[in-house]
């Protein structure tokens, strides 16, 4: 695999791009990272993802793969070391179910918690968010990671959102650790791995980004 | 071989997807009809997170979410493969299956819409389907090439189900004039025995959809 050309088109604040960085780092795959502008999309991005025009995009030997979880599955299949998905079909289905849960529930909530009107709607969104994290805590159980003894597919799907928690807590005024200490324990355990700590952006940087872009987002509905 | 059970809801294309996959693989299964207005203890036990159909139970192990179930079926019964072998081609198939999640959202908006909202939903659905036709299907007969695969299964609602909704709404979106290749694909899919023999009768479907839409309109 020495002649492999691997390029990742990403955006520093995007949790779904971080998923791909973690997966590549776990596998020890060398890749070129190309930071993309969300407001001024490059010709390369438009060529590689004409359907959605979004990041992340993995380019492997000239061929593009889009959609973060599709990319992570592709990486797991192409590079066999440190498998992220279990080999047993039922356990695989279980991992896919929970990664999909993260996409269906967690990804969208950020918008509702931070960008919607204050008051009742925001309180309901915060409660929903905590309820979802609690379900994830039950799935984690007594295991160190969702993947068992090592980082797995669900860990990779979920942990990037950890760098957004400080922003959520500050803007929506609540403590995630107070309600979900076990999940925060898991986040910190993941952060001790270089593949994770080097891939996630700093929480204060995320908070500043949120503040800086809130006005722009309100006017253009930019989705990150 | 452990027992296979499918908890489904007869008018739902999400349940139909699973039936087609099981039939294509030649898997024997027991079908259990769920009354979604009165969910069974079993459904709540097997799908506590979403409390929805379809749910596949293999032995004593439940799997929920139709796309997850399809991948499980593909891996557990490898004969008559429904995904490409090549990892890149497989990633492309999964990309288009994922694109279908947006299509489902657009179909829902079309189903729920009336008046101006219906017009807007029809326009957005058409735009989304144009991309699917041009870049997903291209010149192929099926997404799977000469025969149907998981991608075709995931878009199955665009045939018989969308046709019934279009008739109930009096608005057409998938037509030979606007989406010639996708329209032809839908017709070909609906003619395949595994689909034709495993969807509700069109009059039953129409009656259900009309009643459901009337209920929605009242609320």
UniProtKB/TrEMBL annotation, chain A:
Subcellular location(s) of the protein: Cytoplasm, Cytosol
Family under the similarity heading: Belongs to the GST superfamily.
Catalytic reaction annotation: RX + glutathione = an S-substituted glutathione + a halide anion + H(+)
Domain GST N-terminal: 4-83
GST C-terminal domain segment(s): 88-215
A GO biological process held by the record: glutathione metabolic process
Cellular component per GO, a single term: cytosol
Keywords linked to the UniProt accession: Cytoplasm, Transferase
Source species of the chain: Salix dunnii
EC class: transferase
Example of a GO MF term: glutathione transferase activity
EC number: 2.5.1.18
InterPro entries named in the record: Glutathione-S-Trfase_C-like, Glutathione-S-Trfase_C_sf, Glutathione_S-Trfase, Glutathione_S-Trfase_N, GST_C_Tau, Omega/Tau-like, Thioredoxin-like_sf
Function: Is involved in the conjugation of reduced glutathione to a wide number of exogenous and endogenous hydrophobic electrophiles.
The protein's name: Glutathione S-transferase
TrEMBL record, chain B:
Stored InterPro entries: Glutathione-S-Trfase_C-like, Glutathione-S-Trfase_C_sf, Glutathione_S-Trfase, Glutathione_S-Trfase_N, GST_C_Tau, Omega/Tau-like, Thioredoxin-like_sf
UniProtKB keywords: Cytoplasm, Transferase
A Pfam family matched in the record: GST_N
Transferase found in the keyword field: yes
Annotated ranges, domain GST C-terminal: 86-209
Subcellular location: Cytoplasm, Cytosol
GO (cellular component) term, any one: cytosol
Superkingdom of origin organism: Eukaryota
SUPFAM superfamilies reported in the protein's UniProt record: GST C-terminal domain-like, Thioredoxin-like
Residue spans crossing the bilayer: none
Main localisation: cytoplasm
PANTHER family for this protein: GLUTATHIONE S-TRANSFERASE U10, GLUTATHIONE S-TRANSFERASE, GST, SUPERFAMILY, GST DOMAIN CONTAINING
Described purpose of this protein according to its UniProt entry: Is involved in the conjugation of reduced glutathione to a wide number of exogenous and endogenous hydrophobic electrophiles.
Family: Belongs to the GST superfamily.
Protein name as it appears in the record: Glutathione S-transferase
Native source species: Salix dunnii
